[in-house]
Write a structure and sequence with these properties.
Order of helices and strands: EHEHHEEHHEEEHEHEH
Distance between the termini: 17 Å
Number of helices: 8
Number of domains: 1
Number of strands: 9
CATH topology: Rossmann fold
Bound molecules: 6-phosphogluconic acid
Length: 241
């Protein structure tokens, strides 16, 4: 499968390149629709992008924070102040450092029991914001795991074939195992999809995806995200090989 890649020397330049792609999309979305909606990914790779966004004047001051709405592509089923929470990571690196109104921050809830209730509540929140059609985020940031997962869609998961639900609670072979994730019903709508991939550990999965034929659905969830606009894969040199 052919991937549309941008290879940068290291994580800092990869993070800058992604931000430089995002800023004009923010302006365009605000001009057209009055607001910009982004789905943030979890994991470690986007931390650098978030902190550069918050701490670099040329990015922070050019962002109309009152028009920016933050959502998440997935969340671990842990309390919001747990260091494993994707929301917590974004709060520490970005949200607490920029003038974004609290009502523009839309974390995936994790305090309801069972986790299916959290998925239902988040779908209701998305419907309230976007309306009844599956939402198209202006930007969705995604990552990839070494076995090919993206968001919390893992290889072999029945949720990969979901046709109705926008958000699902899943049990995965990773720590922590209980998670809440957007489904392909939503992730296949994104207006712009950016994968952020850094480090030598990601080299093998990238070459496995490239070696697959595109004539049948990929066995790797990350390569099954096919919105109308082809995803861009931002790689650092270590991941690109
Ligand atoms: C999560 C993620 C997940 C992540 C990849 C890559 O909550 O774990 O959203 O899909 O993006 O596992 O993670 P790293 O950036 O840490 O390699």
């Amino acid at each position: 499968m052919k991937l549309d890649t941008r290879t940068l020397p290291d994580l800092v330049s990869l993070s800058r390149a992604a931000l430089e792609e995002v800023l004009p999309i923010i302006q365009g979305a605000v001009t057209k629709r009055g607001r910009f909606a982004i789905a943030l990914s979890g994991g470690h790779t986007p931390e650098k992008m978030f902190s550069l966004w918050a701490q670099t004047a040329q990015y922070r001051d050019k962002t109309p924070w009152d028009r920016v709405h933050l959502f998440w592509s997935d969340e671990r089923y842990v309390p919001a102040d747990d260091p494993r929470s994707n929301y917590h990571m974004a709060r520490e690196t970005l949200i607490s450092r920029v003038p974004i109104p609290a009502e523009n921050v839309h974390p995936i809830p994790t305090s309801l029991t069972p986790p299916e209730e959290c998925a239902t509540a988040y779908e209701a929140e998305l419907r309230k914001f976007f309306g009844s059609e599956p939402p198209a985020f202006d930007v969705q940031l995604l990552g990839i795991g070494e076995e090919g997962h993206t968001a919390s869609l893992f290889p072999g998961s029945p949720v990969l074939d979901e046709k109705q639900r926008w958000v699902a609670a899943v049990r995965v072979a990773a720590e922590p195992p209980q998670r809440i994730t957007l489904t392909p019903v939503v992730l296949n709508q994104g207006r712009n999809t950016f994968f952020l991939v850094a480090g030598e550990g990601k080299r093998a999965i990238l070459s496995a995806i490239r070696d697959e034929s595109s004539s049948k659905p990929s066995q790797y969830p990350a390569a099954r995200i096919h919105p109308a606009t082809k995803p861009i894969w931002f790689l650092d040199q270590a991941a690109a090989g």
